[in-house]
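Why show two proteins at once? Because comparison is the fastest way to build intuition. When a single record is shown, students tend to memorize it. When two are placed side by side, the eye starts asking what differs. So, the first record is below.
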Amino acid sequence: MADQPTTFSGDFKRFFGRGLAILLPSILTLWILWTASVFVYQSVALPINAGIRRGLIEVSPLVMPAEPERQPAWYRLTPERRTQHPGKADREIRAAEFHKVWDAYYLWATGLIVAIVLIYLAGVVLGGLLGRRAYLRAEALISRLPGFKQVYPHVKQLVDLVMGERPMAFKRVVMVEYPRAGIWTLGLVTSNSLRIMTERTGQRFLTIFIPSTPTPFTGFTINVPEAAVIDVPMSVDEAIRFVLTGGALIPDRMLPDAAPGVGNGDDGPVAGLPGTGRGAGA
């Protein structure tokens, strides 16, 4: 049976979908990085820069020498500058002139540098015994405030999952029949189960965490006989990404082979699609 001739519409859809699949990950990655950079710049760097400028303006009269020739150019209140800024106080004139000096590109990074240093110092202080105790007390207070107590614990749990210093307690990835026989679910082994289960049944049990989608830091804890568990050659990170995306992100080595009648992404004919010669009525 001769293949039906391809059409412009079919070729366009196929190649457009292929191009979108190739370019979209890179475009989304660049967009996320750009958006994060703009957020950090506007929400962190600019406020810190404004605070530094304001602080320097407030402190400058206390540290500046009395002789005008020894003062920086932006600080001098010449008659020309008073004419350029009519009706403004001395502090406002100096602030406007100092802002011009601060326009140098290398000074705009000051806010980011200060933010990095402050975060580092916060980690050093709060990492100590006294700092950690004070932080835990403040955290307990925040967790009881209306509004915060509904959001803060979940945000903290997510941050600890992603950036926590302690390694994840999950030991390996397994498959178990859950919630009923015939349905296989990915689970994360946390430990051997309670001793009483082994004593009462004569079998070794494993404690397994079943993450939920799309929030894998919540889920169910079940106890399964070790003999009923099948190991899966995936890392814990890969399993979490699999659950987080609802099964959309599968490691390349774990991709299933194309089933009969299912396309595998190549240029060969696909059953049931126009232009392949295998659809209905072919």
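Second record. Ask yourself what differs from the first in the token line.
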Amino acid sequence: MTDRDFEVTGERRAFDGHVFDLDVIEIRYADGTTASRDVIRHPGAVAIVAWDEEAVHLVRQPRPAIGDPDSLELPAGLLDVDGEPPLATAKRELTEEIGRAAAHWEFITRFHPSVGVSNEITHVFGATGLREEATDSGEDERIEVVRWPLTDLDGALAGSSDAKTIIGLTWLRARLQR
């Protein structure tokens, strides 16, 4: 045992939200010390690195949480359909967000965006062999589709502060340099 080992001794729901819930958990460390932690319970998400011979398909959308009306990001979405696997969610979100389907899918990675406060996990997939696919998500997301030239991935990276986008575009840049 280390002094970092802990057990959860209690938990209460502080907030039920539309996208996430907030729990307050009580923990006891191996040395007997106790603490309270706020934990965001999140359903998880997917992000898609979709590219063709010339461009990577990104989106611009408003993100009020950071005060940005034009956040540059990978197409992405919540794991908000019960029982839907991450790859199926990625396929649905690619169509809903940029009106494309992909012939080839590849798992890239998964990561926890904010381990200090949330259990969220984001699954990142690569998508190629793109074709148009009409759909309407029925949501008012105010998305602008951006075809960003593959020759300027550094510019896309510099233009985004979003973790999933930075991870996905860094992976794509390394892949294309092989």
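One difference worth noting in the second protein: The longest helix spans residues 163-176.
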